[in-house]
Amino acid sequence: MASVDTVRGPADTADLGRVLMHEHVFVLGEELRENYPGFPTGWDEELRVDDAISKLRALSDRGIDTIVDPTVIGLGRYIPRIQRIAEHTDINILVATGLYTYNELPFQFHYVGPGLLFDTPEPLTELFVHDIREGIADTGVKAAMLKCAIEAQGLTPGVERVMRAVGRAHVETGVPITVHTNPHTESGLVAQKVLAEEGVDLTKVVIGHSGDSTDLDYLRKLADAGSILGMDRFGLDLLLPFEERVATVAALAELGYADRMVLAHDASCFIDWFPHEVKELAVPNWNYNHISDDVLPVLRERGVSDEQITTMLVDNPRRFFES
């Protein structure tokens, strides 16, 4: 059987069970937090770790077995904290390598790389491959997925460089990819084009945040090219209301695309992008339990079968992580 790397070590893909394919444990500006610990919202290490353990246990109680956490450089990846949490929950946590930017690269990459002041092989690819094959830092935890992003700013030079490095790391290692996209600019199509140019198998690409769109023509183009649609922002009702998200998944399932969708919230136990209290008021359903408690019952009411739900939660993730 095929195996996949989790925070606790290799696991059989058949044991991943029901998977939420895009959830963060923490999203943090680590450098800002270290220097201004009270901004924009206070941080208490033990409180946040205990809270994360509690939230993941509650998710496990709802029958979810695995989350994929695409927190990479730019989003505050810190694996030792995730290891602490994983020790106290039955949930499998899969982590990612890559770099999250909508525009520029960190300054550490501005002058180092092919054709630059210090002309070297692409360091991004080397770092990503190291995370996959050797492990992240000195934790021993290996990345199970690659991550890049393309937002409304489009294919800037920095975004393209990361995306091509991710594509090359995929070709070298076989590890699958998730791409943060903005469906309103159809940036998923741009990502597919660039990744295909690098030799990427598009069936191993999740086009993230596709669930923010109701444009069935756009979504079907992505799926018909082989990629998986990330219907992965349930609970972010400010970006698209609940009913429209559910209706889009149901419509695609009716059209035969259940085998090209995965589900998630893009939620976190803690995110420091805005004050915690404001987030709770603005998006009260943006949490790990919304799909289990609210989304799946309504999908069933809309005609999505239990078999199709199993396809989206179990079969598609398992196939995605098998080589």
Automatic annotation (TrEMBL):
<feature type="binding site" description="via carbamate group">
    <location>
        <position position="147"/>
    </location>
    <ligand>
        <name>Zn(2+) 2</name>
    </ligand>
</feature>
<feature type="binding site">
    <location>
        <position position="22"/>
    </location>
    <ligand>
        <name>Zn(2+) 1</name>
    </ligand>
</feature>
<feature type="binding site">
    <location>
        <position position="24"/>
    </location>
    <ligand>
        <name>Zn(2+) 1</name>
    </ligand>
</feature>
<dbReference type="Pfam" id="PF02126">
    <property type="entry name" value="PTE"/>
</dbReference>
<feature type="binding site" description="via carbamate group">
    <location>
        <position position="147"/>
    </location>
    <ligand>
        <name>Zn(2+) 1</name>
    </ligand>
</feature>
<dbReference type="GO" id="GO:0008270">
    <property type="term" value="F:zinc ion binding"/>
</dbReference>
<keyword id="KW-0479">Metal-binding</keyword>
<dbReference type="GO" id="GO:0004063">
    <property type="term" value="F:aryldialkylphosphatase activity"/>
</dbReference>
<comment type="similarity">
    <text>Belongs to the metallo-dependent hydrolases superfamily. Phosphotriesterase family.</text>
</comment>
<feature type="binding site">
    <location>
        <position position="180"/>
    </location>
    <ligand>
        <name>Zn(2+) 2</name>
    </ligand>
</feature>
<feature type="modified residue" description="N6-carboxylysine">
    <location>
        <position position="147"/>
    </location>
</feature>
<dbReference type="InterPro" id="IPR001559">
    <property type="entry name" value="Phosphotriesterase"/>
</dbReference>
<protein>
    <submittedName>
        <fullName>N-acylhomoserine lactonase</fullName>
        <ecNumber>3.1.8.1</ecNumber>
    </submittedName>
</protein>
<feature type="binding site">
    <location>
        <position position="266"/>
    </location>
    <ligand>
        <name>Zn(2+) 1</name>
    </ligand>
</feature>
<keyword id="KW-0378">Hydrolase</keyword>
<feature type="binding site">
    <location>
        <position position="209"/>
    </location>
    <ligand>
        <name>Zn(2+) 2</name>
    </ligand>
</feature>
<dbReference type="InterPro" id="IPR032466">
    <property type="entry name" value="Metal_Hydrolase"/>
</dbReference>
